[in-house]
Amino acid sequence: MSSAGENTYDVIVLGGGSTGENVADIVVKGGLSAVIVEAELVGGDCSYWACIPSKALLRGPEVLGEARAVRGAKEAVTGQLDVQETLARRSWFTGDGDDAGQVKWVEGAGIALVRGTGRFDGEKTVVVTGTDGTETRLTARHAVAVCTGSSAAIPPIDGLREISPWTPREATSVKEVPGRLVIVGGGVVGCEMATAYAALGSTVTVIEMADRLLPPFEPKAGEAVAASLKDKGVDVRTGVAVTAARREDGEVVITTDSGEVRGDEVLVAVGRRARTTEIGVEAFGLEPGRYLEVDESLQVKGVPWMYAVGDVNGRKLLTHMGKYQARQAGAAIVARARGEEVSLADWSPFVATADHVATPSVVFTDPQVATVGRTAAEAEKAGLGHRVVEYEIGWTAGASLFADGYQGTAIAVVDPDREVLLGVTLIGPAVGEMIHTATVAIVGEVPLSRLWHAVPSFPTMSEIWLRLLETYRG
């Protein structure tokens, strides 16, 4: 192998996904120099294989559903979803796998970029091996931020790995839609892809080991999504375990504890694993293949110059939370480089407090599921006093105008002693655009007495906040 030289920067960022880009951007804006090391596409999974392409696949069916839910508009819908145009729109959003636009942004932000696979070679030192075998040695003055993310987990099921199953990457980048798709896993990815592929024309089967879909969410969320998928012709099987897999005469055969399921392809959507196997963390007493344990400022425990940001620390595997962590970690890196004190107190500009109590997420199924904070079960487990308040969103004027026969539920988990929101779940069409209101209320610990003065515009679905308060007050 030849050497392309040695370079020194204030901060080395391993991984050029959205998290790594944000860490580098923050530290450069803080007056430090930064280099991103990326072996694949700059922009990472979110841009090319996850959030962006999956939502592009889901948006067309969602628009058609909204039009068909309004009399006068539904009569104008005379055709079906155009599958090839839907796939083409998805490809446009991902740049057909070309990251030139992201690279241009990186360069314009004053961030250096080194293409290749990075591996630690001593304290604050990384050796990057390019595709041509050339090695570049990088040294950091202050910090190395590990932002290598996560990859799809393939469980140790007999024969599963051997049949080359789809992961979310294949599901979102497909060129041809399979006639039959078996999805193993009924979490967020499984439910979203079941929604998308049913609309694209596949016959879909979802297999989930838990007794309901979307297990971590409020039970009504999984129940609503399961009912909708069944209405779309999806075979939803909960409480079922996969025991083996094989290919037979061109078919995928999935063996479960309640019989066989056959399809043309199988998507495995059962979780993620940390991308820490090949980066050399064992040299610092860390275990390869495991999530890196961090303190509140995302500093790796026991290795003060190393930060683990985003999926790689296993705290909250969501793009927006990775970006949030990047902002907090970047601020901490800059402050420490200047010799300033970094407070680890709650809601400090250097800590990821929202990871624990105020993480929002949206599941882009039909209906959508939007949630932030704690569920009732999580509040119970944490030993928090709580009261659950529910209201049918369709009873508001805004929802009834949005869609004829609107079906949806709002669930609020309230701390009755402090009278603040602990968590909110919204289930229904277009609820994802309303969840940030609850996020602000939870982060700010806004008393319900003050929320009475946050008057929702009429007639909008935001009227649900007033109805929840009225229900709580009784």
From TrEMBL:
Keywords: FAD, Flavoprotein, NAD, Nucleotide-binding, Oxidoreductase
SUPFAM superfamilies xrefs: FAD/NAD(P)-binding domain, FAD/NAD-linked reductases, dimerisation (C-terminal) domain
Disulfide bonds: 46-51
Binding-site positions, FAD: 55, 118, 148-150, 311
Cofactor (UniProt): FAD
Entry annotated with the keyword Methyltransferase: no
Location of the Pyridine nucleotide-disulphide oxidoreductase dimerisation domain: 359-465
Cofactor note: Binds 1 FAD per subunit.
EC code(s) of this entry: 1.8.1.4
Gene Ontology terms describing biological process: 2-oxoglutarate metabolic process
Binding site for NAD(+): 185-192, 208, 271
All copies of domain FAD/NAD(P)-binding, residue ranges: 9-321
Molecular functions per Gene Ontology: dihydrolipoyl dehydrogenase (NADH) activity; flavin adenine dinucleotide binding
Recorded family membership: Belongs to the class-I pyridine nucleotide-disulfide oxidoreductase family.
Protein name per its UniProtKB record: Dihydrolipoamide dehydrogenase
Source organism (scientific name): Petropleomorpha daqingensis
